[in-house]
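FW: tagging you since you asked about this chain on Friday. Here's the raw sequence from the shared folder, copied in full. Didn't touch anything.
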Amino acid sequence: MSKHPTGVLVMSYGTPESMEGVEQYYTHIRRGHPPTAEQLADLKGRYNAIVGGVFPLRENTDRQVRSLQDKLEQLAPGQYRCYQGLKHARPYIEDGVESMAKEGISRAIGIVLAPHYSVMSVGAYIKRAREAAERLGVEMEFVEEYHLHPKLIQALAERVLGGLAKLVDNGQGAAHPVKVLFSAHSLPEKIRELNDPYERQLNETAAAVAEAAGVLPNRWQFTWQSAGRTKEPWLGPDILDTLKELAEEGERAVLAAPIGFVSDHLEVLYDLDIEAKAEAAELGMQLDRIAMLNSDPLYMETLAESVMAEDGKTAKA
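HL: got it, structure written out here
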């Protein structure tokens, strides 16, 4: 038996460490093409609106990695060591794999802080990690999805119930029943041609959470958000369009449940908390949002159990 623990590469999208790093971050997202002055000003404006020049977003990801390490240590003392790998910021995915190799890790499990698989999202993380692992001689397997893990569904259902209760306390939910809007980051429509599971998995999660929270089928629906600004068509309808439709149907209270995201970051704190809330107010609707998972113990257990299950499959193979 190896004296080294199994490495765990915890991957996520990444975020700048400060306002000074926004341009470099945006350039990396654009595959080395610097943003225009207008694009950079728009992105900086969004970050300023949610963080006011102070950047707690990176610490949130760091805390998730530490919390997963703590949970794995509780469940399997001394067996796992977590490393961080980010898609668009340091430490990059390749940096995380390199750190493992330098510390003598020969076996590892990779997991992405995103429950739903798409070849364009989770698949892209895995591709980069696998290439780095092969180059550095690290044997690595991956958790590709965990969108129906019972503890994930429980954690999300608790948040939906809490959000509904808050709206009722604020005077909604009696005269105006609440509509639950599940959402996730849109992707280009072309994923449908690839028989990509992303859309199906998201709808499965939404249905499972709604059932666990006791939300009737006619009181929830799925929508998309945060589509990229490219010429190709993206999955829709966008949440802003959905809100307009709901207003026309007479809905007056909406609970946003962004189940495609696990952390407080730009797509949640700006796209929902500022942009969607402003649209809802304009339409005469109240919009609240569920709390994000972040380092929730049930989410950490979801990740830890998923890692250990994948490790167990690898050991038996």
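FW: Residues 150-289 form a domain with the Rossmann fold fold (CATH 3.40.50.1400).
HL: agreed, and The radius of gyration is 20 Å.
FW: great, closing this out.
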